[in-house]
Specification:
single chain, alpha+beta, nine-stranded antiparallel sheet, elongated
Length: 507
């Protein structure tokens, strides 16, 4: 197919208004107006993509959903956490069928390329079409989980859709520790459904039947400084693919924070650390990291960095072929970390676990992992934020967290453990999973499969808090979420739309 891109920066409805000469509240260039199928789903996706909705910034999208539902005479309420609850009456003949809950999350991960000037607080996502996929211009696309929201909106908007009574829950803060789902108990909402269909996964023909639990850890290692008279240099680790710290942790991609720790630990020239930073989100594999340091032995430093660049490029050439470690001169700095602080930081980072820690080889899935998400010098400490996950609760409570507490103690670091959520336990008997897999076969002519997801889903929290007895998760093909390479298969969206409607019709 052609590599030419077609921009659809705003929805087809805005393009149509432009053709009619109507004024637009937000002026954005359109290279080409595109009609994608299913039109309703893509129209709603473009609509919500125009609204900034990074985690913690969901007020505008929540208000939009209330207005949107109210305009269709649907029951709609919003709670203090910006969760949104919508109800739609059953289609004729299904009034006495058990209700079903459809669920997706409103927020998105905000990641961009170093050269992107995008402002996630104010700018709409610029959507493009490339070889049958939707992508964004230098940023995350937000299909995680905007496409799930849009698929549900299309069902709610369709007066001819056949379905039992529908309860719809759009949660906030999913990407920031599932904060919205955690606060549902204070919303006062009463859910009648006992079966949950979550639309926050991204594999064609694969239903999620269980997921890991996990949480976040934040280390704060105290640092002390002294005067500096040596030249300063900046070491950069860049060009990495990154990705989702749950769904893609098993791919063995390099984590820029861990690579930087290895580089610093292997330097034999005498040096002191001045500052460092890497990554952005604890649930995204870090793509870039840097360290500024002082060193008197300039030639040795350059030589050792060049050697490590060659060695690490060979090591990661199959999974991160663009990995690059470079060194450049930096502006003089009056202060640097003491020898003791530099050693403490270096030792802590090299000992910090990262990547897959345990796998289930019988069912071929990741059991336990840890991701060093971000690393920043903040005032008088180094703050390191990580994500930990496991499908076996004891791996966290009896193994990984005790290990991290011991490490923090050895380095005199503070350790914060926050936003822990329960896993979604796999159930061998699942009526909704059986129905859904049969529906996929009928829609596509191909068999479906199921898997246990290492990435976190809200299903565990919802089942625990709200008493659901059965659940599945599904979504169209979505690649590289949580990174600027995020892309969404257009044809897979059409399949998902047909599948959801067939499942609802059969319930």
């Amino acid at each position: 197919m052609s590599k030419k891109r077609a921009n659809i920066n705003i929805g087809a409805f805005l393009a149509h208004m432009r053709l009619l000469g109507a004024p637009l509240s937000q002026e954005r260039s359109i290279d080409m107006a595109l009609s994608l199928e299913p039109q309703a789903v893509f129209s709603f996706f473009e609509e919500i993509s125009a609204i900034p909705r990074g985690s913690g910034n969901e007020a505008a999208i929540a208000a939009h959903m209330i207005s949107w539902a109210s305009a269709r005479n649907l029951f709609a309420e919003r709670d203090s956490a910006n969760n949104v609850f919508i109800k739609k009456a059953a289609s004729p003949g299904k009034e006495n069928h058990p209700p079903i809950l459809l669920q997706a999350h409103l927020d998105m991960v905000c990641e961009k390329t170093p050269e992107s000037a995008h402002d996630f607080q104010s700018d709409p996502i610029s959507i493009q079409v490339r070889d049958g996929y939707l992508v964004a211009d230098g940023t995350t696309l937000g299909a995680d989980n905007g496409i799930g929201v849009s698929l549900i909106m299309a069902v709610l908007d369709d007066p001819n859709a056949e379905h039992p009574p529908l309860e719809v829950l759009f949660t906030a803060g999913e990407e920031a520790g599932m904060t919205g789902a955690r606060q549902l108990s204070s919303s006062g909402w009463a859910f009648e459904s006992k079966t949950l269909i979550n639309l926050d996964s991204g594999w064609e023909g694969v239903f999620i039947a269980g997921a890991a639990g996990g949480g976040r850890t934040v280390f704060r290692i105290p640092i002390e400084r002294e005067s500096n008279a040596d030249p300063c240099f900046r070491i950069d680790v860049r060009g990495l693919l990154g990705g989702h710290s749950g769904a893609e942790i098993h791919l063995g991609r390099a984590n820029a924070n861990q690579v930087l720790a290895r580089v610093l630990n292997n330097l034999t020239a005498e040096w002191r650390l001045i500052s460092m930073g890497g990554g952005g989100k604890d649930n995204a594999i870090a793509r870039n990291a840097y360290a500024v340091l002082s060193c008197a032995d300039i030639s040795a430093l350059h030589s050792q960095i060049a050697q490590q660049n060659d060695a690490l490029r060979r090591e990661y050439e199959s999974v991160d072929p663009e990995l690059e470690i470079c060194i450049t001169s930096s502006e003089p700095e009056a202060l640097r970390m003491t020898s003791a602080s530099t050693a403490c930081v270096k030792q802590f980072l090299i000992l910090l676990p990262n990547g897959v820690l345990a796998r289930d080889h019988a069912m071929d899935f990741t059991v336990t992992s840890m991701n060093i998400g971000s690393c920043r010098v903040e005032n008088d400490c180094l703050a390191v934020r990580c994500s930990v996950r496991s499908t076996i609760p004891a791996h966290l409570t009896s193994w990984l967290l005790p290990q991290l507490r011991i490490l923090a103690g050895l380095c005199s670091a503070e350790l914060e453990e926050a936003d822990f959520y329960p896993g979604w336990e796999f159930r061998r008997a699942s009526p909704i999973r059986t129905l859904a897999m049969e529906a996929y076969q009928a829609v596509t002519g191909s068999p479906a499969s199921f898997k246990i997801l290492h990435g976190g889903l809200e299903c565990g929290i919802l089942m625990e808090q709200l008493g659901f007895t059965d659940a599945i998760s599904y979504g169209p093909e979505l690649n590289d979420p949580h990174s600027p390479r995020e892309n969404l298969s257009i044809t897979s969206v059409g399949t998902a739309d047909k599948l959801i409607r067939r499942i609802l019709k059969a319930l």
